């Protein structure tokens, strides 16, 4: 376990607790509470990127019990770690950008986006590059208040069937959901000087920031023109990974600003998504060290290695792809 992980984790958790307190109890003026609500949303995202992401991949620490505790930090900000592991670790990492397999690019209900040729086309998709960046903000709210419960009762996340929970997983799922409801709604309702409407407004601000940060940072890694979207064999129903799983992971993923220590720490290594997808069991602190090796190996075997110079370049590429994908007919890389 890298000492930087421990220091960063406890700093993030402290900042989240402090900003939560100041949002609902410590600030006397609403505009100050809005500021701390924004900070609280950022800290929720930091917990998602810099703590639980490594922990739920098993790369945070060599001590299983401590790793399990850190993986549950995402439960304490409203998102089920059990459901996150099913969608992200089992679904997304195994079948990155494969339509019908990767739950991260599944067709949503309502059908608000079109990311691959196989997705049904609707007239409003022509404008998805305009409205999706706004809708991204509600994804955390949707996950906290709807998705986890829908997955629990249906037993699936899109096409992905989820296993039955163990007794411990059941207790953690419902125990943390109840704990979240108590500290996020009941305590402010009972002890905050704000009325119910203001409490809801502050809560929504937290969730919007949480959703926007995570959505943009994850989307720029896979939903860009440079990334491949492997096809599914119509006869067997299996993904066609012509060059193998590892090459497909590289080709369906993109980095941004990989030499930046700031972005590495602030995103929990999400600027090194290629390295993460190849070595999800390696802590993100080490990505800058293995990145040159991965790049040279890709060059040696002629595997495309995509890296944007800045986050903003990656974001622009994502928005451009949304515009192209929203058109009736479009061409994009299908090899994987």
From TrEMBL:
Any one Gene Ontology molecular-function term assigned to this protein's record: oxidoreductase activity, acting on paired donors, with oxidation of a pair of donors resulting in the reduction of molecular oxygen to two molecules of water
Residues passing through the membrane, by range: 6-22, 34-53, 65-84, 170-194, 200-221
InterPro entries hit by this protein: FA_desaturase_dom (IPR005804), Fatty_acid_desaturase (IPR012171)
Keywords attached to this entry: Membrane, Transmembrane, Transmembrane helix
All residue ranges annotated as the Fatty acid desaturase domain in the record: 34-308
GO biological process: lipid biosynthetic process
GO terms under cellular component: membrane
Family stated for the protein in its record: Belongs to the fatty acid desaturase type 1 family.
Protein name, entry field: Fatty acid desaturase domain-containing protein
Natural source organism: Ceratopteris richardii
Taxonomic lineage of the native organism: Eukaryota, Viridiplantae, Streptophyta, Embryophyta, Tracheophyta
